Please model this.
Amino acid sequence: MEFLKFCPKCGHETLQWDGEKMWSCSHCDYVLFHNVAGAVAVLIKFKDEFLFTRRNQEPKKGKLDLPGGFVDPKESAEETCVRELFEEMKIEVPISDLKYLASLPNTYEYKNILYNTLDLFYEYEVSEKFDVEMEVSEISETIWLKKEDLNLEDLAFDSQRLFLKNYLRA
Model:
């Protein structure tokens, strides 16, 4: 975050990062908050198997991921789940079929900016496996894995590892 030095209000090189959540300008008292971003992840479940995607972009390109993404302005977390599942895999999911499970803090680094996120986890249970029409700009493949075949270290994000560790233990 140290590369952001110029105040967007007065233009002076006096913008200072507090190390946690805000920049402030010592010249004009401008304050810019870097608040927590909401994100969702959906655990798609068929019997004892779970659907994972493989990331096709940074950060963590090539790692396993749960489908999901960032909440857009004026969008609920459930609406984000529906939108992201359709964008990534062309899956149409009724909001009422989503089951909220947990939330965990996480970080997401994008283009040298570290975003603090609040990851909201949902479950979507299906009655049969299905083929996925992938959005290859986001994911390179989808994989159904059984609990015993899942290596948590293959997952892209800390929050997903912790969530699945707790989920699979229950």
Q: What stands out?
A: The beta strands are 15-17, 22-25, 31-33, 37-46, 49-55, 64-65, 68-70, 99-110, 113-125, 139-146. The chain has two domains: 1-34, 37-169. The chain has a mean pLDDT of 94. Residues 1-34 form one domain.
